Each structure stands twice: as C-alpha cells, then as structure tokens.
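call fold(seq) -> tokens
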Amino acid sequence: MPEILILDSATQFEPRHSGRIVITGSHGGLYPGYLAAKAGVLGVSFNDAGIGIEAAGIASLLYLDRLGIPALTVSHLSARIADGADIAQRGIVSCVSKTAAALGCAVGQRIMAAAELMRAAVAHAIEPPAYVEARTCLRAMRGEPEVWGIDSAALMEPSDLGRVIVTGSHGALLAGKSDHIVKGPPLAAFFNDAGIGIDEAGVSRLPLLDDMGVIGATVAATSARIGDARSSWQTGVISRVNRMARKAGGCEGGMLRDFVERLVQDQAP
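ret:
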C-alpha cells in the first residue's frame, strides 16, 4: 500500500513523494494543487485557509478532480496551517473533491482516516497544465521602493532587499518555527491571513517580521484570494499588523494598497 507522508508546505515536494498520499500544511489554492499534481502524488490534503473569497482556499480540489487526483482540505479551525504534524494529529476534513468522495472520504472525518481511504486511489499519469506563477512589479516610481507581487512567499529573493513585497501566501510560520522564507530582507512584507484559524496560526509570522525589522501585515482571506498577490493588491483589507506596521501608520480595516502607497511615498527623498 502507498505510504502516507506529511509536509509543512507543498513547496517541499520531492520526487520521492510520487505515488504517495501526502498530507500538507499548505492552503488549498491553485498553486499548491499544481505542485501536488506535478509531483505525481496519488492523493493529497491541504488546509482550507478559511475558504475565503471566491472559495480560493479550496480551489485545488476542482483542479485536481480534473486530473483524477483525490484531494481534500482540513478545517483551519481544527489544525494549524503550515504545520503538517499538527494537521495529521488534529485535522478534521472540511471539503472533499468528487474523486476523494468516491473513495469514501467525507466531511467530518479525521484526516488520517481519510488519508487511509485515499490509499485505494488509482494512479493517473496526466500532465498538469502549465501554471505560470507571477512575480510582478506592482508599482515602480522614481525615488520610491519598488512594490512587487509574488503569488508564493517561496519566490522571495535576496534581491528583494528594501522592496515592498505583497505575497499571496498565508502568514503562518512553517511548523510554527523560525524559517528562511523572508529574504532580502524587504522593507515590508504582506500575506493573507488564511482565516487566521486555530491558535491564530495564519498570522503567526508577524512577530518574527518585527524581529527582522520588517514591516508586516496580513489581509483578510475574505477580501483577497489566497495565492494571488494581485488580488491582495487590488482588494486586500488589512486584518492584522505587526508593531512596525502600526508605527508606520498601518491599521486593521484599511486597504492594503492605500497603506503601501503611503509607505513608499514616505521613503522617497
């Protein structure tokens, strides 16, 4: 029978995960679904990230259905996003794809019970359609820090030093520990709150950003599509700020774009 493996993030997929059932801590948006399909998993689970606007937090389920790969999500209120071990221990299924439902997976099950059922899946060798994940310059004005949008925090680069980075990623630390996702470091970094969730995992990165000297905030999952930096830039409403962001004039309930535009203008000589 295929193994059941556990990851904190879909960005950690490796060739050894092919043909396995993988419980991930990632949100269930399109990009993690693409990474799962590209890795050739037999079945996969995600965190529903509060489901959010346009059901972006579970968008991978329909995507993977089209490829014949069973997929499901656990409730963000049952286990911490970005923490595979916690999800395996406490996760309760919140949504299932049609392919997973055909194997007996159902809402309300414990994630490990659902993962056992997915071991009966039939492997499909369908190549996933190309996914072009964006690294897009959202604003560039002479004398001001550039504002870049990235759909995944994994796309952050050392060259982002001093920039403002708007990510589509959740605002959780991987496994609740310090990590090296934030590179540069940027002047400011913004994330999706993934519904905040149990233990406030969806905003757990904000204090670490304070420690790094980085202005940080999250936008509400109900205001912008998780996994989509452009959506955060266009419609994101700030849900939480760290100390540095509050000092810079950021506040809950404000539009992220308005805050960023004031922030970069204040940096101009």
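The CA atoms of residues 100 and 166 lie 33 Å apart.
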